[in-house]
Amino acid sequence: MSERIVILDFGSQYTQLIARRVREAGVFSEIHPCTLPAEEVAAMQPSGLILSGGPLSVYDGEAPQLQPELLELETETGAPVPVLGICYGLQAMAHLLGGDVEAAERREFGPADLTRVASKNGAAGNGGGDGAGALFEGVPEGSTVWMSHGDHLTTLPEHYEVIARTTNAPVAAVRDRRRPHYGVQFHPEVVHTDYGRRVLENFALRICGCAGDWTPASFVEEKVAAIREQVGPDAHVMLGLSGGVDSSVAAALISKAVGERLHCVFVDNGVLRKGEFEDVQEAFRGHFDLHLKAIDASERFLQALDGVTDPEKKRVTVGNTFIEVFEEATEEVAQRAGERPRFLAQGTLYPDVIESVSFKGPSQTIKTHHNVGGLPEELGFDLIEPFRELFKDEVREIGRLLGVPERIVGRHPFPGPGLAIRIAGPVEREKLRLLREADAIFISELRDNDLYDEVWQAFAVLLPVQTVGVMGDERTYEDVVALRAVTSVDGMTADWAELPHDFLGRVSGRIVNEVPGINRTVYDITSKPPATIEWE
Question: Rounded to an integer, what distance in angstroms lies between the CA atom of residue 530 and that of residue 343?
């Protein structure tokens, strides 16, 4: 990428939101740990740096600190590289430069009204005029920003000045009068900041001087070329196809790069949705020029899952069993192709990476994803993960550019461990039957009522409880199913979908009447955070 903004992660759960806001401005951005050596950051020749928020206080013993060299980076022309510190990132800048950061008497979490503060003097490269003009261009006075901090600046570093405040935060935004270095105490990356996207766009385009011409189409062109170079003219590539958006678009992209040297394996792991094994085969055999091998290993997976109740163990069990089946399929491909495939392609997405491991900075692990870091080294594959730094909506757009059918591109996310983590408790055949039928009713009603595309994800969860009911004047004591539907942009945050009451009533009525063994449905109205989208 000729232009890029590097985001240094200090442990915020929402650092990736900064990345997508910058990309929405047409500038490629990527996240790296705050511990990345400054010389490696300099080698990337960034157009700008953004320092993320974080959960710690700068004066804590284990708190990550900002490397001094990062504030001295220069562009190829010798100009200072622009820097924007957000919340902890601002405090880390101030702390490094001799400012004071202290615990606030009154913590600030929630909305606040932003008021501009007149600058003492303008400065070239900082927007001129009041000095804050570049960063807050198009941001109305008194607009809402989102605060989430317990510490605040009490003394500014030399040459720094306040350019915005709120009622509770006299230092809501600052700038260095000498260099294009800025800091904000609020979080422009979250949707609760009314003009946060504009603030980050101003930083990327006005302050960093980026052209804003990065698009998914340009990504496809560059990624296809990169895959061709990585794979070479003769090597073969394996891909585990699930029929979901990520692996499907990855298959389309990689087939564009290597053609028939891509071998896709679709495995029935026993925890797929109703009719999915047949539907995926039909869709792919009719739309893609690739080798597709479909394997029914459902009995093998269900035996491995027998008695497993812990959701993390379910993930590991499904992942490990898949690796065994996939390795057997790879050996068959090797015999047919005359050589063992060297590469393994995965549809890993950015949220998968962020939520699974402390991949880029000290972000807290939420849950393990089946396709992130779970492959034993002895398999001997080199990985191809073309979407590792992309979000779901970006992948969908790329899929449409590549001609992937809309019924595949528009599918809701489905977890790798499948229905195993939508059954709270042990995975049993009868429970799978109940859940498949209830889920199929819910999804079909969403489609029939033109609501499927209005929500980010929808599914049913079978709960480990039974309740008393009355059906036909007879007492029942049967299972409970929870319905879950959320709206979201990228899956990192989500709100529960306010589906019409009459619709939910109709779905509930169909489930309890058409699925013997279920006598009650409930609807989940919890957002993310505090909950995750999946129940396990």
Answer: 38
Alpha-carbon gap, residue 52 to 352, rounded angstroms: 19
Tokens in use for 468? 């008393």
Residue 192 catalytic? no
DSSP 3-state percent helix, strand, coil across the chain (nearest 5): 35, 25, 40
Strands 173-176 and 160-165, by their bridges, are antiparallel
Burial string for 55-67 (b: 16+ CB within 10 Å, else e) reads: ebbbeeeebbebb
Among 187, 236, 291, 369, the active-site one is: 187
Whether 158 and 97 have beta carbons less than 8 Å apart is answered as yes
The H or E element that residue 477 is part of is strand 474-487
- What does the pLDDT look like over 238-253, one tens digit per residue? 999 888 889 899 999 9
Compute the distance between CA of residue 415 and CA of residue 315 in angstroms, rounded to an integer. 10
Cβ contacts of residue 430 below 8 Å, gap of 6+? 517
Tell me how far the alpha carbon of residue 216 is from its chain's centroid.
Answer: 17
Distance, CA of 233 to CA of 354 (rounded, Å): 33
C-alpha 107: how far from chain center? 28
Query: Would you say 498 and 458 are in contact if contact means Cβ atoms under 8 Å apart?
Result: no
Query: Burial, 384: exposed, middle or buried (Cβ in 10 Å; 0-12, 13-18, 19+)?
Result: buried
How many residues are listed for the chain in this entry? Answer: 536
Catalytic residue among 189, 385, 437, 445: 189
Within 10 Å of residue 74's Cβ, how many Cβ atoms? 11
87 given a catalytic annotation: yes
Nearest to 293 by CA among 253, 339, 251, 240: 240
Phi (first) and psi of residue 223, to 5 degrees: -70, -40
Spans of the chain below 70 pLDDT? 1, 104-109, 120-132, 149, 286-289, 350-379
CA–CA separation, 178 and 97 (whole Å) = 14
Contacts for 104-107 with beta carbons within 8 Å, 24 or more apart? 104/149, 104/150, 104/151, 104/152, 106/168, 107/149, 107/150
Residue 194 and residue 144 in contact, taking contact as beta carbons nearer than 8 Å: yes
- Note if 210 is an active site residue: no
Instruction: Write out pLDDT tens, residues 383-393.
Output: 899 998 788 88
Pairing of strands 457-471, 474-487: antiparallel
Catalytic site residue from 3, 34, 87, 149: 87
Number of CB atoms found within 10 A of residue 310's CB: 10
CB 144 within 8 Å of CB 113: yes
Enumerate domains of the chain plus CATH numbers.
5-207 (3.40.50.880), 216-409 (3.40.50.620), 429-523 (3.30.300.10)
